[in-house]
Specification:
This protein has 184 residues and is mainly alpha-helical. The protein contains eight helices and no strands. It has a single domain, classed as Tetracycline Repressor, domain 2, CATH 1.10.357.
Length: 184
């Protein structure tokens, strides 16, 4: 409940809107009640990030369900959904992927790694379809992940443009996958 309230505040007003007092007010509890669950604001934000990494993991896992799933379609869909998540929840996306002040704890690191491992499985299935044995699977997953995050960051920061060949994240994803398939 507290992490959900903090996530809502992030969506509405960014990180500056998330205070222990604001979360307590949103949950109709005393201003000290959140301290029974969290040591402070940073701990609360880590809980939001952990929760959202779990949601991304489920998204990636859902895309990889079923043996008959087209590997490219599954990976592409997952990447498009990641871009939609970033657009709909920009402050939470930045919390997960670019907040230097987020204090990682053991459960947050595990949640982030679990999310990436689910993504890596999608890439592994895609790689098998492509017959790209020369490319290390982990490096390929990292390349696709980093390229997608870079395109998302450029778009969210209003630095993507047709003049740069970066009009939309989805266009960049399609191009990257087309290039990878051309290497096979």
């Amino acid at each position: 409940m507290l992490a959900a309230a903090a996530a809502e505040l992030l969506d509405q007003g960014g990180q500056s809107a998330v205070t222990i007092r604001a979360v307590a007010e949103r949950c109709n509890v005393s201003h000290n009640a959140p301290y029974k669950h969290f040591t402070g604001r940073s701990d609360l934000l880590a809980a939001v990030a952990e929760r959202d990494f779990g949601e991304l993991r489920r998204l990636f896992e859902q895309e990889s369900l079923g043996e008959a799933v087209n590997a490219r379609a599954a990976l592409s869909s997952a990447l498009h959904q990641l871009a939609e998540y970033a657009r709909a929840h920009e402050a939470r996306y930045r919390l997960l992927f670019s907040d230097p002040d987020l204090s990682p704890n053991e459960t947050l690191v595990a949640a982030a790694f679990g999310s990436f491992q689910a993504f890596r499985l999608l890439v592994s299935r895609y790689q098998l379809r492509l017959v790209q044995p020369a490319i290390d699977e982990l490096q390929l997953a990292g390349l696709i992940y980093a390229t997608t995050h870079g395109a998302i960051d450029l778009e969210l920061s209003s630095r993507a443009s047709d003049a740069k060949g970066l009009s939309r994240v989805e266009t960049t994803i399609t191009l990257l996958l087309d290039i990878l398939e051309g290497l096979g």
